[in-house]
Amino acid sequence: MPDTRPEDLIRQLRSLAEDFANVHHLTLRTGLLDDDAVLMPLLARIRTTQSLTNQALTLTLATGSSTIAPTAAGRSAIEHLTGAARQGNDAGGHLLAGIPAATALHRAPRSAPKPPRTPRTSIHHLALRRHISAATNLLRDAPVICLDAAALITAALTTSSTALVPGDVLPRLTDPQLAAFRLISQRAVRIRQREGQPPFLDTSVPAPTVTATVAALERKKLVTRDTSTSLDEGQELVLTPAGQRALPALVLPTGAASRTTPAPAPPRRRTR
After folding, report:
1. Is the CB of residue 2 less than 8 Å from the CB of residue 55?
2. What is the mean pLDDT of residues 178-185?
């Protein structure tokens, strides 16, 4: 059982989100492999996905044993983590269901010339692509759900240390701005710029965050850039003091994972 201190749970949830994002990216690439060489990578993805699902369940239990478990934030975090485990379990199920098709297409190395390649429109190819596509879509959501759970726990801790002061006005955020705000609160977003090119966002999870949305949060003075590094290296986006004070009020009222998770993004690791 991992440490149940909220600070440690936040750290582990951030790490789990990145691991889910990595296996999502690898599963996406699995579909680009030659279908007669996909069996072993597919088995590796299944093992990793099952491991991450077990980690999500373990963190769910740890959150239930933590000091924030009786709070609204704790209950929502548990619900989010249950959702992440469900996404991972369903993704693993689709990958497992693709094994018969991958096995049928698998050709072991041999000294003799390979037989003619199976047409890409065969029933085995179509079944394999369908299962890998379904698993990829499920794994795309899991990282954001984990970071949402971390944001809830962060907001619960922030409530006890800071709050809106007289004169502060709670900003109104659109759903995309709120989703980006939660990601930034977990240090999951950087802004980069190459010479002669417009700035772009680099996220540690496949989330639908765009530069215009982040610019709106900057105008509302909720987030700022860490200018200790260059734009070429990537400047981390962090909450301002006003953003930290507003975090509990903006994040804690969120409901279940199915309602708070942003819509799936196109499969890109950076967005303009």
Report:
1. no
2. 94
User: Given its phi and psi angles, is residue 82 left (phi above 0), alpha (psi -120 to 50 degrees) or beta?
Assistant: alpha
- The verdict on pTM exceeding 0.85 is no
What mean pLDDT comes out for the span 7-32? 94
**Nearest alpha-carbon partner for 211 in 223, 195, 229, 226:** 223
Q: What six digits make up the tokens of 33?
A: 């492999």
**Is the separation of the CB atoms in 32 and 24 below 8 Å?**
no
Cross-strand partners of 238: 224
Nearest C-alpha neighbor of 34 from the set 123, 102, 90, 93: 102
* Two tokens, residue 199: 């700035």
Reduce the DSSP state of residue 79 to 3 states and report it: helix
Q: Which amino acid is at 219?
A: R
- State both tokens at 233: 């290296």
Q: What is the mean pLDDT of residues 201-225?
A: 90
Which parts of 31-122 fold into alpha helices (H)? 39-64, 72-97, 99-105
Question: Helix or strand or coil: residue 203?
Answer: strand
Do residues 162 and 50 make contact, with C-beta atoms less than 8 angstroms apart?
A: no
Q: What is the CA radius of gyration of the chain?
A: 21
Q: Which two tokens stand for residue 269?
A: 């690791």
Q: Which helix (H) or strand (E) element contains residue 224?
A: strand 223-225
